Amino acid sequence: MSNPVLVCALRAIDAFPALRAALEGWAQGRDRLSTGDSLPQALMALTPEVTFRQAILFFTEADLVTGKARFYCLQHTKLTQICFSPLVAESWRCRAESLFSYLQAGAQVLCTLLLIKPGVWSRRLPGILRDLHLQKFRLVGMKHVELGAAAASALLPRQVQQDPAAVEAHCTYLTSGTALVLCLQRPNAVKKLMDLLGPEDPQLAQALDPCLWRAQYGTSTVQNGFYGSRSYAVAVRDVKLFFPEGLCCAQCQTVQEQEV
């Protein structure tokens, strides 16, 4: 096999079924476009065991794991022949042994932050907590806060911060009363919470799905009910900002140790 091949290590929630579905769609499209051999063929490892065996052939642990544990799925094209002496192969296997536990662990439990804006939590808290429980969120931190102008401004999206009038409107509302801050934990917590909240504009949220929280509880882009961390890096920043004393769950240590 003289042609070069591309070997990729991929990370995702539900990586194996997601990659399998993507490759099946790609194969169907390829078959419609061409009957020849000009388009590449793709293979993937189907189980954590196979992924682990193939990963240690092509990557060292330093290649795959930097700092914190990661979850990987291996995709590769037609394999070239590759040989190692028993000593070298065993050395690589020892360094990569911890990868197997990562592959079996599945999605990592993460934390995210939900801020329920003034006027919403005092009237809607029981229903909100019930919905969080149904969505399998675990509450690991909660406090009432009186936001100052600087803290309120820091929560605004970048595009809003470029509009002085919008910043003033948001900050006036966010500092008008007590907000309730919740630190929530579950696998894929950041995306799951953002999917639950919906778009910043309640009218757009209503058009997409009336069950979205901002569709239910929001009245305008300013008074839209909730703030949620938009990425994991932002979630780490937010948790450190609102819970500098730490959280009630030992499993949250990963978040507390992260540096943005």
TrEMBL record:
Key words, A-Z: Kinase, Transferase
Entry annotated with the keyword Nucleotide-binding: no
Single annotated GO MF: kinase activity
Superkingdom: Eukaryota
InterPro entries reported for this sequence: NDK-like_dom (IPR034907), NDK-like_dom_sf (IPR036850), TXND_domain-containing (IPR051766)
Pfam families documented for this protein: NDK
Name assigned to this protein: NDK5 kinase
Classification of source organism: Eukaryota, Metazoa, Chordata, Craniata, Vertebrata
